[in-house]
Design a protein that fits this description.
The complex is a heterodimer of chains A (about 110) and B (about 110). With about 110 residues, chain A is an all-beta fold. Chain A contains no helices and 11 strands. Chain B is about 0% helix and about 55% strand. Classes of the chains: A mainly beta (about 110), B mainly beta (about 110). The interface of A and B includes residues 31, 45 and 101 of A.
Chain lengths: ~110, ~110
């Protein structure tokens, strides 16, 4: 069963706008990871945030983690049409690389 | 680096037939994971190996599913006999340390 729940399930924005996706989980984690999936392709890792970190940046991506609320958010700034994809959060609960994925957010960025 | 290689990319078979999916992990990675993705259930972990040894197969749906990893560079997922409800995209992923590296998947259709 899925550990994480993502919100929203779908998001449509204009190019240049920011996109925010949220992820909630149920049990304590070692780290939380965000992945991207283009249609017909495998998942690609975007960013990893450890349980003792609160915020992390990578290029136009910003991830926050609130372990007290068991939630994380992914912000994509200045979105581009090429950012159109599904985005998944995944939680690592036992430091054994075994991940549990959320249901994903389908992002569409209109040019 | 060629990445994780899965074959075939597409498989169409009739109910009752045996299906074998193949995966070549990234060289040097000691973890290998098999995931299944469907619209209804999202991404589900089926089984994972560490150093060619199955560690957790609790996600394997039933005895019709089996997975092997005879050596560090090859793994198979077999379904025998296949059923229409097995239709899904099956992903293989490998890692040494986080994150996971995914192949592009095998889209299985059982008619």
């Amino acid at each position: 069963s899925q550990q994480g729940e993502e919100d929203p399930q779908a998001l449509s924005i204009q190019e240049g706008e920011n996109a925010t996706m949220n992820c909630s989980y149920k049990t304590s984690i070692n780290n939380l990871q965000w992945y991207r999936q283009n249609s017909g392709r495998g998942l690609v890792h975007l960013i990893l945030i450890r349980s003792n970190e609160r915020e992390k940046h990578s290029g136009r991506l910003r991830v926050t983690l609130d372990t007290s609320k068991k939630s994380s958010s992914l912000l994509i700034t200045a979105s581009r049409a090429a950012d159109t994809a599904s985005y998944f959060c995944a939680t690592d609960h036992n430091a054994g690389n075994m991940l549990t994925f959320g249901g994903g957010t389908r992002l569409m960025v209109k040019p | 680096d060629a990445g994780v290689i899965q074959s075939p990319r597409h498989e169409v078979t009739e109910m009752g037939q045996e299906v074998t999916l193949r995966c070549k992990p990234i060289s040097g990675h000691d973890y290998l994971f098999w995931y299944r993705q469907t619209m209804m259930r999202g991404l589900e972990l089926l089984i994972y190996f560490n150093n060619n040894v199955p560690i957790d197969d609790s996600g394997m749906p039933e005895d019709r599913f089996s997975a092997k990893m005879p050596n560090a560079s090859f793994s198979t997922l077999k379904i025998q006999p296949s059923e229409p409800r097995d239709s899904a995209v099956y992903f293989c992923a490998s890692s040494l340390v986080p994150p996971l590296h995914f192949g592009n998947g095998t889209r299985l259709t059982v008619t």
